[in-house]
Amino acid sequence: MNVPLLRTGVSPHYQPCPGARTGFVFICPGRFEAQRGYPCAAGTGANLGRVLVELHRRDPVRFASMHRVDYVVTNAWPQVEYPALTGRSVPTLAEVLQPNNLRRLAAELAGLQWVVACGALAHEAVRALRDGGRLVAQAAYGCHLSQRALNTMRGATDTAGRVALWAAAVVQQLSQGSKAS
After folding, report:
1. How many CA atoms lie within 13 A of 2 on its CB side?
2. Engineering a disulfide at 137: which of 26, 45, 115, 142 sits with its beta carbon 3.0 to 4.6 angstroms away?
3. Is residue 152 included in any domain, yes or no?
4. What residues make up the domain containing 121?
């Protein structure tokens, strides 16, 4: 999927969007994000694009656009992680929950009304911010949007079906005002 012209300030871990009301938190940038210079590149980015179409269709108030540039997209951990570079794919929970890291994430999410955490470490970071009173946005939690993670979802047999289920669960959480799970 082609990414429309990105805004200034974009890095492998963070895509700002002044005035955005909704944002997404993933785990950390990897090889493709480092190569391309923006978060959620390659397959995860393609699935984010698919999800945005479905979220916009289901809830055009919270998801007013089908285009990723109209959302804040960031990561629970800003450092690029992939086995050939760092020997791992993701940070530790302790690293994600470091006070300096949580301050950074809180600043990147400041002003948002809705945040969608994608993946277990993103869930933990967003919960820590909410529990600490540093995030007032309503939060929803879903699996990571990598193809591998989506393929673990039950109830659908193809990517389109899994994307629809994922989007339905996120919209339901936000509609119910869910703060957990």
Report:
1. 2
2. 115
3. yes
4. 22-169
